[in-house]
Amino acid sequence: MLKAVLTMVLTGVRRRVTRATDDHRPALEEMIRHVSSQAEIFRPSRGWQYFEQRNGGQLAARGLENFKRTINQNYFNWILSGPNDNQFKAVARMWADAPSLDAFKVELFDYQDLEGFFENNPLLVPEARELYRIFLGMLWQHTRTSDPHGLTEVLEEPLLGNPLGSRLKGRLISQDLANSIRERNAILAPVESAFAGGRRVSIVELGAGYGRLGYVLLCSAPCRYTIVDIPTALHVSQWYLTTLFPAKKAFRFKPWDRFDEVADELRSADLCFLTPDQYARLPDRFFDIGIAISNLGEMSRQQCAMYIDLFDRKVSEFVYIKQWRSNHNPLDDVEFQKSDYDLPAPWTAFMDRPDAVQDLFFETLWRRA
Q1: Are 181 and 143 in contact, with CB atoms under 8 Å apart?
Q2: CB 46 within 8 A of CB 143
Q3: Going by fewer Cβ within 10 Å, which terminus of the chain is more open, N or C?
Q4: Digit-coded pLDDT (tens) for 268-293
Q5: Peptide bond into 346 cis (omega under 30)
Q6: Distance between CA atoms of residues 254 and 288, nearest Å
Q7: What's the gap between Cα 273 and its chain centre?
Q8: pLDDT per residue as tens digits for the range 79-94
Q9: pLDDT tens sequence across 39-53
Q10: Global pTM value
């Protein structure tokens, strides 16, 4: 019965497409006009021009309400290549260290409608669907056993955006939610104890996708959370997070040139949405924590260097960087290595390790000495 109800709800959400896209189109067009008028270094790289075109087309065709079925497949949600996939092998090893039958109890439903870079929906193939189901179960099990704050027991994947139907013990879960909980715990570990004393941290995330990590941060930590992104992604994350958190004070994107025009609004907001040029105009040390996940290698070399420099100048305490260890960006014709993302002195690597699941990524938490 529960499965039928959830399927009906997700199907109903998926059908409400065109009107919402049309209603929000002026906000996206204003973002595009603003970014297009800025210096080239603040505009999307050639790589992201390609993604912007593809993602924009999917949003126009399928709507904001369905973005977890479309553009999210181009972000950080992984459809496995097979049982030899590095992520599957990683979670299988961790499951073997702490086996639990719960890892095999995930149910997939309403999986028929999914599109991304793949030509056909891989989950329509029974073997691929079963592999994904077991992978998700083992990923969730690893996240649960390594989560000191019990977030896997209280957070669910929001229905907003029409996610792939995946449920464990009656609760909606997802790959994005598991990875975001893991990232949140790594990022906030050095400041977690201060929350009990009333501390509130200011966080900036560069290239946040649709705001999957922002959702977890806003649910679980006292913070002011700012997203810096290019138009289509900024448009989606602004719609998603302001819809999920209507009671939080939001500084929605608007064009501005001088910080003093918006200083009071930015400082009093819980949620802020900025373009790259606006981020560069903020005062130094405006944020406590900076975050960049799976994005720097998709830029030009000059843009990547600029954002590392901006982290150095705009962030006062910690910077979390999670990227490919080695990455070739063919559209911008640039090769990146891990060392390209190093912060300069006086920053030191407080944590530096391969990601436990996607071990082709590294994650480093930098601390200002």
Answers
A1: yes
A2: no
A3: N
A4: 999 999 999 999 999 999 999 999 99
A5: yes
A6: 23
A7: 14
A8: 898 999 999 999 999 9
A9: 999 999 998 898 888
A10: 0.93
